[in-house]
Design a protein that fits this description.
Number of domains: 1
Largest sheet: 7 strands, parallel
Structural class: alpha/beta
Helix content: 40-55%
CATH architecture: 3-Layer(aba) Sandwich
């Protein structure tokens, strides 16, 4: 299914994005790997099972002009993309009342708008070809609010509205959409999360260390893509919060009110 397919992954230098690169490389896909640091992309490319089928595309997701320019370059080189994985993002560890609005804007720019821009640039070629799959890496906090995650949760909530609308408008033209909602995954996301003034959190969350591996998460995502799932949840017991919010809201509010922000 994925042999020779062109797959563009943002946030490909670590965590879920890196794990997806390794898994898809085993399946003979041609990968386009993006993140800001070229040296990290080179490392991932060298580790892929078929590094000769990897193209690195350094990209700053906070800069619209860079995203648009790179999209044009990639379209000129490949003609169209088969699968776009909007995975790049930044998490957050700060209270609403203390967080500078500039931090909210940066998180929204990277986590939400970068994917919107890239999707809009690639969709016309997908529609012209009559096929294409957009994968949006959201979070379980895209389904509910949570302490210390106000901007992050807001950006992930916004993703759901956008990508569900993309599917509603374009599924009859061969466009598929999968929104992925990971819970606790063993990655460095908490280390790079932004604090109230925009500096990195620099600490590994205890709950994060007990999460499922990025490799397991990647395999579940690829399985969902094969099955054309519209939305999937990946995690352990933390996924119960989604169902509490949906079916037993009073329990969700009780539990979330007991979380003690540091």
């Amino acid at each position: 299914m994925f042999k020779e397919k062109v797959i563009w992954i943002t946030g490909a230098s670590s965590g879920i994005g890196e794990a997806l690169a390794y898994e898809w490389s085993k399946l003979w896909a041609h990968l386009i790997l993006s993140t800001r640091r070229k040296d990290e992309l080179e490392r991932v490319k060298a580790t892929c099972a078929r590094s000769e089928q990897c193209t690195i595309a350094p990209l700053d997701l906070s800069r619209q002009e860079d995203i648009e320019a790179m999209a044009e370059q990639i379209l000129q080189q490949f003609g169209s993309i088969d699968i776009l994985v909007n995975n790049g993002g930044i998490s957050q560890r700060s209270l609403v009342i203390e967080t500078d609005v500039a931090v909210d804007r940066r998180i929204m720019e990277v986590d939400y708008f970068s994917g919107v821009i890239l999707t809009k640039k690639l969709l016309p070629s997908m529609v012209a070809k009559g096929s294409g799959h957009i994968i949006a890496i959201s979070s379980i906090v895209g389904m509910f609010g949570f302490p210390l995650r106000s901007a992050y949760s807001a950006a992930k909530h916004a993703m759901h509205g956008f990508y569900e609308s993309v599917w509603a408008e374009l599924h009859t033209q061969g466009i598929r959409v999968t929104v992925v909602c990971p819970g606790r995954i063993l990655t460095n996301v908490s280390l790079h999360a932004l604090t109230k003034d925009g500096t990195p959190h620099g600490e590994m969350d205890h709950a994060q260390t007990n999460g499922i591996t990025a490799e397991t998460c990647a395999r579940k995502i690829i399985k969902a893509v094969r099955k054309n799932k519209k939305e999937i949840y990946i995690g352990k017991i933390d996924l119960m919060m989604i169902y509490f919010k949906r079916y037993i809201p009073w329990l969700y509010y009780r539990l979330v009110s007991k979380v003690k922000p540091k």
